[in-house]
Amino acid sequence: MASRWPWRLERRAKPSALMRLVSSPLAALAMLLTGFIALSALGVSSAAAFKVFFIEPVSSIYGVGELLLKATPLMLCALGLAIGYRSNVWNIGAEGQFTLGAITGGGVGLYASQWLGSASVPVMLAAGALGGMAWAAIPAYLRVRFHTNEIFVSLMLVYIAQLLLSWLVHGPWRDPAGQNFPQSPPFPDQATLSPLLEGARVNAGFLIALSCAVLSWWFGAKTGAGFRMRVGGLAPAAAAYAGISEARNVWLAMLIGGATAGIAGVCEVAGPIGLLQPVISPGYGFAAIIVAFVGRLHPLGIVLASLLMSALYLGGESAQVELQLPSSITGLFQGTLLFFLLAAELFIHFRLRPVARA
Amino acid sequence: MNVNTWITIAASAVGAATPLAYAALGELVVERTGVLNLGVEGMMLVGAMSGFAAGVTSGSLLLGYLAAAAAGMLIALLFGFLTLTLQTNQVATGLALTLFGVGLSAFAGRAYVGLPIARVPFVHVPGVSDLPVLGPLLFHYDPLVYLSIVLCVLIAWMLKSTRLGLRIRAVGEQPAVAHALGEPVIRIRYLAVLFGGAMSGIAGAYLSTAVTPMWVEGMSAGRGWIALALVVFGTWKPWRVLGGAYLFGTVTVLQLYAQGLGVHIPSEFLSMLPYLATIIVLVLICRDARTILLNQPASLGRSFYPGL
């Protein structure tokens, strides 16, 4: 089939370091171009679209705060997922682990903060991390013990976690003074993350996310466990021969992913939301999968990718207000970005060569 | 509960099972060629949206289904281009397809939210449809239910007894050997991926024109993933996959009935049942590693680079 093309793919002798660096920026650029072409087909000029998407949302302190605020859960979830993806553990249920973290951390905030006082937030974060880990432990255990595919199990648990949260806020945790809205009472002051800056909503969660990025770099680059996980991902057979335990890798990857997603859940409900309600995420846990790949599974890349993805969320909201475009355009951009990225990654290992015509 | 209630439950279970059957049978053929397309959920949503939109606009459900199949094939082609021509990771690309399909269907379908549509009509066979018990149980469905069973028969026969089936299995088990024997590995995989896209598109359209005749964002609610799990549960065999779809249809409908009857269990817990059941059946089938080893196409999920 390919012989009819004037070009053919040829495997590079070794992966291209240059392409490794530029594949993500190239993909982002291609997504922007596609987006602007699509928008001009809808009658929006590129200049106006660029202004609405990328300039207006961040032209105030509040806007910059929002950029960092929305980047926080994306960064946290993606850092945890990336550790798994590097070791061939496909946790795609960060959304569920995020929800469970919000439930356990939020539960502490609602029912124990009067005793905990100023220790409330740290205990909530710990409870959230444990909740996320418990949720991630289910697919880990089932994969290690019963060879069950973690993709399906972690995904099914997303729906179950969301239903559990919905039950809690419709039932036992519903605010008696909440005029029958399905939501919990607001968290007391000592159980909320206060804004870092005057006039913005970004909170300490962003700093936690940045520290996690440093920790994740240290874990991946400097520890034996991180090394064993990378070997397990790159060369499972060699890893097994070298006595690296696959079960241990699966457990570590899932638990780390669950912990960071759980912390993200706490930061979201104890931060901008301030209470528990049936929907607490516009799909951060799923968008984090894209962030992890666009960041090329590297902590620094993930920090940058989460800012880009956060900008897409803000741009989508701004386009909804100013251009009357549905906010679902964000999802469309996110999916397109991942497609372009996967296509661009091809050129790390392959190159195009002109075919000599006979 | 009397006989009639049970008949109604059985009939609704068939309705709930049919979209799962289409999506899972399509994915089964894809996976038998060694390709793992995790984008079923996205293709179903795109099919549900385009089938509904084309059905409402043209007034013809047939056109709606054709549009759904075409839309499913179109975005499956995108998956095929990336994974087969550009050799991208199948898991990551499938996830991308799902995320893209969710966004695309929500974006393109916004004008159709809340519009009414006439449900796919039932087939009435004079004589047998009016039989007591057997009539409503066996002869009171829409054409798509019967078509799904016919397709299951055809796919089972095609895989087992035809030359095409042998080629599909060879490509899925040993692509390098099939390639050496002159089989067009990539072309066969492309065709299977397109077939899977059409089947997922039809599955989606069945959701939006028969199971709940309307279009809502994200209406598949994980059914694409359940269909993927059903292929594993059915150990890549068409009849078992169809049986699995009926089992899940029954679980879904029973929990809905229990909610309607006011059973003293919060409705959220009942709604969890299909998802819990998916996990449980996966554990049951994967418990013995040999079951998967013996049945899973050997090259499943691995890129094949023919060296061109």
Structural description of this entry:
The complex is a heterodimer of chains A (358) and B (308). Chain A is mainly alpha-helical and 358 residues long. Chain A has 14 helices and two strands. The longest helix of chain A has 28 residues, at 246-273. Chain B has one domain: Orthogonal Bundle (ABC transporter involved in vitamin B12 uptake, BtuC). Chain B is 72% helix and 0% strand. Chain B contains 13 helices and no strands. Chain B has helices spanning 3-32, 40-58, 61-85, 90-108, 134-138, 143-161, 163-173, 175-180, 185-211, 223-233, 238-260, 267-286, 289-295. In chain B, α1 packs parallel to α6 (143-161), α1 packs antiparallel against α11 (238-260) and α3 runs antiparallel to α4 (90-108). The longest helix of chain B has 30 residues, at 3-32. Chains A and B meet through β1, α6, α7, α12 and α14 of A and α3, α4, α10 and α12 of B.
Q: How are the SSEs ordered, and which strands pair?
A:
The complex is a heterodimer of chains A (358) and B (308).
Chain A: E1 7-11, H1 17-41, H2 46-55, H3 61-86, H4 94-111, H5 113-116, H6 120-146, H7 150-170, H8 204-222, H9 224-234, H10 236-241, H11 246-273, H12 284-294, H13 299-323, H14 329-349, E2 350-354
Antiparallel strand pairs in A: 1-2
Helix pairs in contact in A: 1-14, 2-13, 3-8, 3-9, 3-11, 3-12, 3-13, 4-6, 4-7, 4-11, 4-12, 6-7, 6-11, 8-9, 8-11, 8-13, 12-13, 12-14, 13-14
Chain B: H1 3-32, H2 40-58, H3 61-85, H4 90-108, H5 134-138, H6 143-161, H7 163-173, H8 175-180, H9 185-211, H10 223-233, H11 238-260, H12 267-286, H13 289-295
Helix pairs in contact in B: 1-6, 1-9, 1-10, 1-11, 2-3, 2-4, 2-9, 2-10, 3-4, 3-9, 6-7, 10-11, 10-12, 11-12
Please give the CATH architecture of chain A: Orthogonal Bundle
Separation of the first and last Cα atoms of chain B: 64 Å
Shape of chain B: globular
Strand order of the largest sheet of chain A: 1-2
Q: Which range best describes the helical content of chain A: under 10%, 10-25%, 25-40%, 40-55%, 55-70% or over 70%?
A: over 70%
Choose one word for the global shape of chain A.
Answer: globular
CATH architecture label name of chain B: Orthogonal Bundle
Q: Give the largest interface.
A: A-B, 51 and 50 residues
Strand content of chain B: under 5%
Q: Supply Rg of chain B.
A: 19 Å
Q: What top-tier CATH class of chain A fits best? A: Mainly Alpha
CATH topology of chain B: ABC transporter involved in vitamin B12 uptake, BtuC
Radius of gyration of chain A, CA atoms, in whole angstroms: 22 Å
Query: How much β-strand is present in the residues of chain A?
Result: under 5%
